[in-house]
Amino acid sequence: MMGLGLGDPPADYGSIMAVGLFVALMCICIIVGHLLEENRWMNESTTALLLGLGAGTVILFASSGKNSRLMVFSEDLFFIYLLPPIIFNAGFQVKKKQFFRNFMTITLFAVVGTLISFSIISLGAMGLVSRLNIGALELGDYLALGAIFSATDSVCTLQVLSQDETPFLYSLVFGEGVVNDATSVVLFNAIQNFDLGNFSSLKFLQFIGNFLYLFGASTFLGVSSGLLSAYVIKKLYFGRHSTDREVAIMMLMAYLSYMLAELLDLSGILTVFFCGIVMSHYTWHNVTESSRVTTKHAFATLSFISETFLFLYVGMDALDIEKWKIVSETYSPMKSIALSSIILALVLVARAAFVFPLSYLSNLTKKTPGEKISVRQQVIIWWAGLMRGAVSIALAYNKFAKSGHTQLPSNAIMITSTIIIVLFSTIVFGLLTKPLIRLLIPARHLTREVSALSEPSSPKSFLEQLTVNGPETDVENSVSIRRPTSLRMLLASPTRSVHHYWRKFDNAFMRPMFGGRGFVPFVPGSPTESSLPLLAHGSEN
């Protein structure tokens, strides 16, 4: 950000003006996004990106071509302040049953698929980009390109897919996007720290071991942080004195999980995502009713503001005159276009190379047609994962720039090509995603589901629903079905049977200790006190 020296009046005035303009742009973006809500083409991410580009153009002309942005792109700002609330809210709001029912497919796409995509892009870049003679690129640079462009834009996916209309597709594409981002970042960091000069089979196995350790440890830290918050809030029950405290402790412990992961060199993205899932399953049900509504909207609002800020930020940074001047003075326009086209083509091919084969493998394990991924759904999964976003830009800056600046032409053209691909994929692919979904999946086939975290119409209806239905009521619990033997059920439908045994373990051991649905705190003497003993008793069953 521009200088924030409080003792320097001119710098202070400049920073206030910059922040003020940025906030005004965010307000405009929200208003325009609201007006275009029903538009079949536009979405809020594309709107924010276009507004950022427009604002950058105005600033560029106003400064006579010397400056085009209010802020310099900062990895710290992106990874420490903007990304955590977006990923946490995604985990907090995700439909857990749908997500975990498709967890093996999501992991297959996000881990195996990302490795396939990384390999194809890296090998393709070595064979094709090297022929353009853009400069001295080493093996590490080509591998970094593979990791950079394997990272999909999970933020944009949130904007173009609806969790209520297409829950199956949303859980697959978004779940893959979150784990894919984590995989790409872990892969990128591993490449940066890997000694490519002394490559051996033993070091490759060590690389795989470290990769698996990062995934396991990050997930464990996220789950542990969520359980700790649930236990603390359940035992201390802050709500009897102040609902502000329990809201604050939820927010701070969620953010603490991300920072702990970064301090321990783990994946903060995976950690905060699983922390959000665990908090929505246990912690959210342990706070007072008013705190539930507050936290639900507070997390969603923070995520929304971060998303809007992020796309404005990327749009304005795209017109940074310094990088484009270095590229234009060193390379011809055709060479820059050729580089971007080659990388974009590799992204398209790499995405198709794992989505369709892995979908086929996933379908082999499914028993009923309804659980299989249809060809139309595979096309949407392929298309929705083509968008690249701020993660790719942040990794490109990390590899090819220092403190947001670069003087090497080969590094500058890599950054500008990344920006071109991000802008093209977000705007073009993003604009066409909604019409593509309507074309391949007509409106009559879209399903509407009530979110597990949807806001109650009133406090009374909220309490009535909990009282009548009891804790964790669903079709599985409300309908009496004669079950087959455990072994037969496990072999016939492993996903459903694992969910069944998890539910039994959750009700018997986890909820009595960590709370959850059915544990409803109440303020003594409040109007709802008389209706809640039944719920408190039900939580211990």
UniProtKB/TrEMBL annotation:
Pfam families: Na_H_Exchanger. Residues 26-437 form the Cation/H+ exchanger transmembrane domain. NCBIfam families: b_cpa1 (TIGR00840). GO terms for molecular function: sodium:proton antiporter activity. Its main location: membrane. One of its GO terms (cellular component) is membrane. It is a multi-pass membrane protein. The chain crosses the membrane at residues 16-36, 48-65, 77-94, 106-130, 211-233, 254-279, 299-316, 337-360, 380-400, 412-432. Belongs to the monovalent cation:proton antiporter 1 (CPA1) transporter (TC 2.A.36) family. GO terms for biological process: potassium ion transport; regulation of pH. Keywords: Antiport, Ion transport, Membrane, Potassium, Potassium transport, Sodium, Sodium transport, Transmembrane, Transmembrane helix, Transport. PANTHER family: SODIUM/HYDROGEN EXCHANGER, SODIUM_HYDROGEN EXCHANGER. This is Sodium/hydrogen exchanger. InterPro entries: Cation/H_exchanger_CPA1 (IPR018422), Cation/H_exchanger_TM (IPR006153), NaH_exchanger (IPR004709). It catalyses: Na(+)(in) + H(+)(out) = Na(+)(out) + H(+)(in); K(+)(in) + H(+)(out) = K(+)(out) + H(+)(in). It is found in: Membrane.
